[in-house]
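Final report, Chapter 2: Outcomes

The project's central promise was a pipeline that accepts a single protein chain and returns its three-dimensional structure in a standardized token representation, suitable for archiving and comparison. That pipeline is now operational. To close this chapter, we reproduce one record exactly as it appears in the project archive, with the input sequence first and the structure output second.
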Amino acid sequence: MLDLLKAVLWGIVEGITEWLPISSTGHMILLDELIKLNVTDSFKEMFLVVIQLGAIMAVVLLYFRKLNPFSPSKTKQQKNETMIIWYKVIIGVIPAAILGLLFDDWLDDHLYNYITVAITLVLYGVLFIVVENKNKNKRAKITNLKELSYITAFQIGLFQVLSLIPGTSRSGATILGAIILGVSRPVAAEFSFFLSIPVMFGASALKLKKFGFNFTGMEFAILLTGMIVAFFVSIAAIKFLIGYLKRNDFKVFGWYRIVLGILVLMYFLILG
């Protein structure tokens, strides 16, 4: 029962940090130090990735009509426009999908540590502030998904490759990259959400394949609890971020990342 309560907390943290550009991995590493799940290392490695399925289902639910090319309520033109969104998503996913498959084990073995996470938290926190200051008085060139070209979608996908490094934040890398390319913040966030669908489904499938499906009853309960909680919390987090970006920039997240990165480094140095 205690592990199920812990799974609820993990789901809350995942649901919030997966969508805000503050690094879910950084928070998960800290949480793992403070609240240990009574599970095997192999299960925990899989759990930290597959719990994201709950978060991604929130995107599917919130944007189901917009992303559904088979909706009977859509005209032929609208269905074509929806398919174009998916084509752009596929183009944007290609770089991270290829490199993620090639280097998944190497990344796990060499970069999943607190030093990497602390550095990337601070680095991208600084970049958020710098980019926002630089773009303060600039008007975005791309203000809706129709204006987003295939080339720009691919370029955003290249930025997404950076998120393979723990602590970067997948949403942070793609949103920051999109802003640099002249995309408005709301459109950058929305396209980032859409890119996450195949990426997170693929990553979860890869981890499940490596782990296998021989769950104990408690392991299955922990995984399901974390996913369900992450789903509901993600709905609130996504709605908050979209509303926030209509009136504000990303600098507050930049400062948060810097503070968190310093805290992560100090915590492990003191205890280490």
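Archive annotation: Residues 152 and 181 are 7 Å apart (CA to CA).
This record, like all others produced under the grant, will remain available to the consortium after the project formally closes.
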